[in-house]
Amino acid sequence: MNIRNATKEDAEALAYLINLAGEGIPEYFWKTMAAEGESPLAVGANRAMRDEGNFSYKNAKVCIENARVAGTWYINAVKLYEQLGFIKVSALPVILYEGCMHGGEWILMTRDISII
Are 91 and 108 contacting, i.e. CB atoms less than 8 angstroms apart? Predict the structure, then answer.
């Protein structure tokens, strides 16, 4: 396994991974930007190929394993945030939308910043 700066050639993998991490929300928005016949993930890949902007390959690192961008790394985000001192304030059920990958809950967490 090797971690390196992303390149323009990683754009498709970046779009796929950001959509996966964003639970389909990026694809939902990319769909609104897509030209006739263009897939939402193609829009995401084109945006990732840009030299500027928040979603640019220049702002990303990729993990390479077996000569490919490694795909799916999952962490339990709630446990991670709890270990960092965040507490759960509220939770509401996910409102399903077109392209939604699963249900579950939206969780609002907060942390006392005076202890930072």
Answer: yes
Encoding tokens for residue 9?
A: 């050639």
Strand, helix or coil for residue 3: strand
DSSP state of 68: E
pLDDT (tens digit, 9 = 90+) per residue, 30-74? 999 999 999 999 999 999 999 988 788 888 888 777 777 665 343
Contacts of residues 72-77 at CB distance under 8 Å and 24 or more positions apart, as own/partner, are: 72/17, 72/20
Q: What predicted TM-score, i.e. pTM, was given to this entire model?
A: 0.61
| Residue the block writes with tokens 């929300």 | 25
Chain CA centroid to CA 109, Å: 19
Alpha carbon of residue 36 to chain centroid: 25
